[in-house]
Amino acid sequence: MKKQQMYINGEWINSIGNEKLETKNPATGEVLAEVPRGKKEDVDAAVQSARRTFESEEWQSFPPIERGRILHKVAVALREDAEEIALLETLDTGKPLTQARKDVEASALYFEYYAGMADKIFGETIPVQPGILDYTLREPVGVTAHIVPWNYPLQIISRSTAAAIATGNTVVAKPAEDTPLTAIKLAEIFDATHLPKGVFNLVTGYGFEAGAAISEHPDVDHITFTGSVQTGSAVMMGAAKNVKPVTLELGGKSPNIVFEDCDQEEAVEWVVRSIIQNAGQTCSAGSRLLVQQSIKEEFLKKVVVKMEEIQIGKGIDDLDLGPILNEKQFSRILEFMNVARNEGAKFLTGGERQETAGLENGYFFKPTVIDGLAPDSYVSQEEIFAPVVAAFAFETEQQAIELANGTEYGLVAGIWTKDGARAHRVASKIRAGQIFINNYGAGGGVQMPFGGFKKSGFGREKGLEALRNYTALKNVALKY
Ligand code: NAD
Q1: Angle between helices 153-166 and 82-93 (to 10 degrees)
Q2: CATH assignment of 255-445?
Q3: Strand 170-174 to strand 125-126: parallel, antiparallel, or no bridges (unpaired)?
Q4: Which atom from ligand 1 is nearest to the alpha carbon of 325?
Q5: Is the CB–ligand 1 distance for residue 287 below 6 Å?
């Protein structure tokens, strides 16, 4: 990284108050960098820059295909520097290098995918009556804000900013205070393109300061937020004051539903992977395991064996499981484990800190399998954000569906069965935004619409659906 500053109106700057915040390596506790602690005034400057540019003749007449070419250049630059960027992401988030490399590739894919869409945003002609020509235009919404979480910093800033710029908007993005580094790197990449100044603006800072200021800013036209339900709700309230639309992606308590006729080896592999990836700090983590009673004991034994084989270490050692993000998240997990014990949980494996020589200052948590919780208990219902999976039994398909739908979330579900009719029947009954049958994640799925039912949020990101977030529909009727 060359810069450790904010990027506003094409300039690298410190915050107006010149205050800083530290970002740390979760594997060692060491300070990695200091970045500006942006506040309301800095957000104002970024929004003004984005507004000025949005309304400028230069941006309004900028050819869509040229926007696409720039986004394509960003994809190329991400790939050129992939190793360096992956290392940065690993140091900042703690995730194993292989996972960080996949994140960089997914980010490049987002830019590539939306680059191709920049000149393919169509309206429609609508038959009304003779003598009237009616058509719709899909116009950019204006200044778009992007509040990004710490679990997939580069991927999440890429998925929404690529779609927003492709559709002709300008951007104010705020990375999470714990993981701002790859967002700054992305700003460096934009800086090296011929994107007009003020299209991409980056403000670093705390959620309660910079994040809140963005949410309540009257001159922001749309907010995309990924994070907790509580903060998502606060962002929505801020936006409501100015009647601004939001797209919210708020996590989940996603089930893997394992029927007795499934390919068990394949299912075990993915059940473990879906909760181990990024140390379980993934909105779509498979954190509930619903298994048909007839195979439950056998299946759980296999899951436990696999969980105990997981290798734990620093992200740069590139093993299976890295540390939890920070002290706050780690204490939160320990608290969940205490509650689980009080709720009568049986720990089949894990449930505690991983002690390893040389890693005493890191936040390492053992892969954990819990059984015996009531489906309506606190730990069965709440997102833990840890490598912790809770198991439940069902007898019938109907019970499986009820259990799967039995939380306030609805982001993702996995169905494991060789019975095709059953797979589709169950998929049709589950209230979640993405259903995977005999797989989980489909390799990332930049092309697949993604988002939640219920408290998992609303609006869709990824795929062509995301373009709706960033365009406003206008109807034009001409009498001839
Ligand atoms: P958070 O929701 O508070 O933070 C996410 C982003 O929102 C960060 O950029 C943060 O700076 C910003 N933010 C915080 N307060 C804000 C406010 N008042 N207004 C505007 N923006 C604000 O998440 P957290 O506290 O870091 O994590 C807590 C829990 O949230 C996790 O344990 C997990 O359950 C959930 N989470 C979910 C996701 C996801 O991908 N859905 C990501 C991160 C966290």
Answers
A1: 120
A2: 3.40.309.10
A3: unpaired
A4: 26
A5: no
Q: Which helix (H) or strand (E) holds 354?
A: none
To the query of whether residue 249 is one of the catalytic residues in this protein, the response is yes
Other CB atoms within a 10 A radius of the CB of residue 477 amount to 11
Residues in the chain: 480
Q: What is the three-class DSSP state of 145? A: strand
One-letter identity of residue 146: H
Work out which ligand 1 atom sits closest to the CA atom of 177.
Answer: 11
- Pocket probe mutation, ligand 1, options 92, 151, 161, 228, max atoms within 8 Å of Cβ: 228
User: For the whole model, what pTM was predicted?
Assistant: 0.97
Eight-class DSSP state of 338: H
Q: Strand 288-292 and strand 255-258: pairing?
A: parallel
Ligand 1 contacts CB of residue 283 (under 6 A) = yes
Interval 4-17: pLDDT, tens? 999 999 999 999 99
Grouping H, G, I as helix, E, B as strand and the rest as coil, residue 309 is helix
Give, in order, the Cα–Cα distances in Å from 156 to each of 267, 296, 355, 362: 27, 36, 31, 25
Question: Residue 353 contacts by C-beta under 8 Å, 6 or more apart in sequence?
Answer: 330, 334, 364, 365, 366
Question: Which of 249, 266, 298, 461 does the annotation list as catalytic?
Answer: 249
Rounded CA gap, 205 and 195, in Å? 24
Residue (of 110, 101, 106, 111) closest to 81 by Cα position: 101
Please state the domain extents for the chain. 2-250+457-479, 255-445
- Facing residues of 147 across strands? 174, 225
3-state secondary structure of 420: helix
Q: Is 177 in the pocket of ligand 1 (CB under 6 A)?
A: yes
pLDDT tens, residue by residue, 179-230: 999 999 999 999 999 999 999 999 999 999 999 999 999 999 999 999 999 9
Q: What homologous superfamily is domain 2-250+457-479 in, according to CATH?
A: Aldehyde Dehydrogenase; Chain A, domain 1 (3.40.605.10)
Residue nearest to atom 25 of ligand 1 (CA): 228
